[in-house]
Design goal:
Elements lengths: L9 H16 L2 E3 L6 H13 L6 E3 H15 L3 H12 L7 H17 L3 H13 L5 H17 L3 H14 L5 H13 L3 H17 L6 H13 L3 H14 L3 H13 L3 H13 L6 H13 L3 H13 L8 H13 L3 H14 L4 H12 L3 H14 L5 H14 L3 H12 L5 H25 L1
Parallel strand pairs: 1-2
Helix pairs in contact: 1-5, 1-7, 3-4, 3-5, 4-5, 5-6, 6-7, 7-8, 8-9, 9-10, 10-11, 11-12, 12-13, 13-14, 14-15, 15-16, 16-17, 17-18, 18-19, 19-20, 20-21, 21-22, 22-23
């Protein structure tokens, strides 16, 4: 499956930018020296109120972070990193929050340069600091887990997500989804499934529409577990919420797995009638379903169009034979012959020419039947030459070519399997020759 992970998308890149911006807005620089006593009392109250949300930061550190931010906006990443490093090299000891913010912004700079490993290292430096605001810890853990996904280090991604879940009272649907995706990438489908189901269920409880890629991942997991009943339910949800022909095609395949070929045919017929661009295999499958459910004429029409009009059906011996079979079952003997001729020309044996001959005999076109049988005998590889020789004898007999017919009946008689039948025909031909001779003599 092609994954649609949030952390590989534009949405993830946007989320990183928003997270970075929010982290800077949370910074509260200390400006006590410039404040009046009244302003200081108000600031103290705000600081106390926000103690869990944002820690205090000294004015010099705040200014350096602002300077680094300006470098980032100008895409001067090297200068930004130098400025951030200078914060950490100050003689005056940084508070835990100040150090965390310097590493947080450093990580963001590395991310912008697509240096995910350095970004991860910097974010982990953030997590090493004590007494961080809960929001910063949570956002950092989530970001680190997503970066591990990008680096395809799924074990570390899983471990990081589990740390995040451990500190959350009520994990969001996105967090459950990340948890499930990590297990999925590690091929632990049994543990991935409940997490993804939680994410979907939580969205629904909130009156929100489950994301399309979440349902797609749920579908893939059910497929991996061969759970086609639940896979059907997910596909029906996808069709309801995100109606697309490819989901209808997938649902048809699920009905096939469940043995409900009638519903499978209904789905595939609907796609075909709506002009859904189908592959050669899908058209062949539809034709076979028509044949299975006793509608050979529809099967023939679908195949004929696929070969001649849309040119999507591959021109193989097998496909020409199927088209011929469909026309034959639809009692369209004349139409069954051209595709069988195409198949015969592609075949390594002459067996299909014998089938062509049978169609001509059904149409009482004995001359064409005789020609087809001779082509089959000349090409060789027949299952039974004696049967072909008997047919050729009959075709010649019906053309009143009695002596030629006798030759082929005599050839067929050499095979013990046709000895009795050929003998009867030989006797009959001899009698017919004798009767014709008598009639000629009488005329004289």
């Amino acid at each position: 499956m092609s994954m649609y992970f949030f952390f590989k998308s534009v949405a993830f890149r946007t989320a990183i930018v928003v997270m970075f911006a929010c982290s800077l807005l949370a910074i509260e620089p200390v400006q006590a020296a410039e404040m009046s006593s009244k302003e200081k009392r108000i600031a103290d109250k705000k600081a106390k109120y926000k103690s869990k949300k944002a820690a205090a930061m000294s004015q010099p550190v705040y200014k350096k972070l602002q300077k680094a931010q300006k470098f980032i906006e100008e895409k001067k990443y090297s200068e930004a990193l130098t400025e951030l490093a200078s914060i950490r090299s100050r003689k005056k000891r940084l508070s835990s929050y100040e150090a965390a913010q310097s590493w947080n912004v450093t990580a963001y700079v590395y991310y912008l340069q697509a240096d995910n490993k350095q970004a991860i290292n910097a974010y982990n430096k953030v997590l090493e600091k004590s007494e961080l605001p809960a929001a910063l810890t949570q956002s950092t853990l989530k970001t680190v887990s997503q970066l591990y996904f990008i680096e395809e280090d799924y074990k570390k991604a899983l471990a990081t997500i589990q740390k995040l879940i451990a500190i959350l009272e009520s994990p969001s649907a996105d967090v459950y989804m990340l948890h499930g995706q990590a297990y999925y990438q590690l091929k632990n489908y049994n543990k991935a499934l409940p997490q993804i189901k939680k994410a979907v269920a939580l969205y629904r409880e909130q009156g929100r529409t489950p994301k399309e890629n979440w349902l797609l991942l749920l579908r893939v997991i059910y497929h991996e577990k061969n759970d086609f009943k639940n896979m059907r339910i997910v596909l029906e949800n996808l069709l309801e919420l995100y109606p697309k022909d490819r989901y209808l095609q997938s649902l048809a395949g699920v009905y096939s797995e469940l043995g409900d070929t009638h519903k499978q045919l209904t789905m595939m017929e609907s796609l075909y009638e709506r002009g859904y661009k189908q592959t050669s295999g899908q058209i062949i499958n539809l034709a076979n379903l028509y044949l299975l459910h006793g509608t050979p004429y529809k099967a023939a029409k679908v195949l004929q169009e696929g070969i001649e009009k849309s040119k999507r059906v591959k021109l193989t011996e097998r496909n020409y034979r199927l088209l011929s079979q469909a026309w034959y079952q639809a009692r369209e003997d004349a139409k069954s012959i051209p595709p069988m001729r195409e198949a015969a020309s592609l075949s390594e044996s002459g067996e299909l020419y014998i089938r062509i001959a049978q169609a001509y005999m059904n149409l009482d076109e004995f001359d064409e039947a005789a020609k087809a049988i001779k082509q089959g005998l000349n090409k060789g590889g027949l299952k039974r030459n004696d049967t072909a020789e008997l047919m050729l004898g009959m075709a010649l007999f019906n053309q009143k070519k009695l002596k030629q017919a006798s030759v082929y009946f005599e050839l067929a008689q050499k095979d013990k399997r046709s000895e009795k039948t050929a003998g009867q025909w030989i006797a009959y031909v001899k009698e017919e020759i004798r009767r014709n001779d008598l009639l000629k003599a009488a005329d004289l």
